[in-house]
Amino acid sequence: MKLKSNIKQQTLLFFHSLTWKLLCVTVCLFFLFAGIVTRVWTQRMTSQASETASRDLYSIMQVSNNNFGTALKDINSVTALISSNMSFGLNSRIFNYLMNENEDDQLLLQYRRDAEDYIFSLCNFKSYLNGLAVSDLNGNTLSYGIFMNGKDLQAQPWFQELIQSDRDLLFVPPHYYDPAGGYPGDLVFSIARKIQHQGQVIGIVTADIKCSLLEDMFNVQNVNGYSMLILDPDTESVIFPLEEEKQILTAQELNLLTTSPHRKDGYFTTELGGRDCLVIEQNASITDWTVIGFVPYENILEDFMTTRAVVFRIALVCAVVFIITVTLFISIITRKLTRLSTAVSKIDSDQLELNITIQTKDEVGQLYRQITYMIGRIRELIEDIRKRENEKRNLEIKALQAQINPHFLYNTLNTIKFLATVQGAQNIQSVTQALSDMLHVNLSPRKYVTVAEETAYLKHYLEIQEYRFNGKFTSYFAVDDALNDYLIPKLLLQPLVENALLHGIAPVTRPGYLQIRIFQDKDLLYIRIKDNGKGLTQEEQNTLSHALDSDSSHIGIANIRSRLELMFGSRQSFTINSKPDLYTIVELSFPLFTAESAGDFT
């Protein structure tokens, strides 16, 4: 249990340590940088892969379209040749057959043989041509290859459409003339042209082209996932591929593709089969059909995704190596700081020193020197506090010694007072009463008395001194009544008043006066004691201002100064201002405080 507790404690300390924080920050910055670089790299590679794929797809479509146009152009040229200049050259054979309905059978047969030979010579070696027919408006037909008869041809829906329209050329989408199999052959698409003479339509030339041409030219599904389809822009129907098993788009996807608002740009992205695809459009050669090529982005990015997976694995390995390296590096950097932290944690009141030494000039070394200096200052302050406490105790002892057994004296004075009353000696009774009241304050265990109590104490003291000096001085008190309840250190002012009488007023022959003023300025209590006695020279003032407790001739002044400094520190003041043979002013100040706040100054 103890082992588990130590491990838990060490773990908690680690997670709160500077090493852990630096490691977290460094790793976060690493992954942030890696993430940004990966994102930018992915976007650039995706963009480049898309551009490359679009160029490749466009090139493939262009090649397929050109090959389709080349193969179709040859057959289209045959239909164009047959439908033009019918009464001239070799075309006249077809013209004679179409226009001479009243000739005898032998002559028509000759016309037919000549026309068919001509058509055969034109159509021979056309590998994708399934059949070609020249038909008049009565159903008579000259044909090459597998073709339907004239009556069935006239029954086709596009036949009358071509005859009645202004168009000379029509491309018929892939179809079977007889789905039931009446006319064998492959699925074909057709080129149909009008045959005109003197502005009148006299027939139609129709070429059936095997749909294998479309398959051979536009089937690219095995090339990097590319796919192509051909649409009839008029009906938005699929021209290629037609077989259901080869359909690569559903009706909904086809509708989405054909209605895309970006189709006019010829290059756009849309979702097909649940995958984002790159789509390109071109117009098919010769025909008015639209060729659409597309490729899924997952195929475009397949190589990139493979490369990215490899890069991610490499990045993961680098991250592990980076974390280990950073951890070791941070541990080396923070090792001295950890030692310093451990040493500082062992400092207490009994051990005010560091048990390590760091000589480096870096931040840790500077911190070590600052802490060492701080510890030295703490030792000095503690020593100073101890010295002050000793001084304070010595002052209290001296104050007790000064009482000269006050209990015995207090009882003796009560006896003298009783005898003075019996003998009728009023002055002895007054002095005894005043001294008794003074001893009552001295016997009190309190450290502080109110301003009113201290003022009464001084008045009792001066009453006694008036008998001693036989009316040589007059005393005046100016005390603000609002200050009566504030506290003052006990027996603080009596030594000052005594010095004023003994060393100021007593040596001179003129009548003396003593003024005691207590007033407030902001949050400070001021006490000013002034006499018109002998006064002090500047040298004597300097001596009093620096008097020590050990100096028996100025023990009262030194005691007051020490008590004020110990109790109030820098918030007190004690000044002496004097002119020889004129006056002496002693002024002291300290913060105003009551019984509730007296604990702040003990």
TrEMBL record:
> Where in or outside the cell is it found?
Membrane
Where is coiled-coil annotated?
Answer: 378-405
Q: Which GO terms describe its cellular component?
A: membrane
The answer to keyword Transmembrane applying to this record is yes
- Sorted alphabetically, which keywords does the UniProt record give? Coiled coil, Kinase, Membrane, Phosphoprotein, Transferase, Transmembrane, Transmembrane helix
Q: One of this protein's Pfam families, by short name?
A: His_kinase
Annotated InterPro entries: Bact_2-comp_sensor_kinase, HAMP_dom, HATPase_C_sf, HATPase_dom, Sig_transdc_His_kin_internal
Q: Which residues cross the membrane?
A: 20-41, 310-333
Please verify whether the record's keywords include Aminoacyl-tRNA synthetase. no
Q: Which residues form the HAMP domain?
A: 331-383
Q: What is its main location?
A: membrane
Molecular function terms in GO for this entry?
phosphorelay sensor kinase activity
Do you know which PANTHER family this protein is assigned to? SENSOR HISTIDINE KINASE YPDA
Protein name per Swiss-Prot or TrEMBL: Sensor histidine kinase
Q: Recite the lineage of the species.
A: Bacteria, Bacillati, Bacillota, Clostridia, Lachnospirales
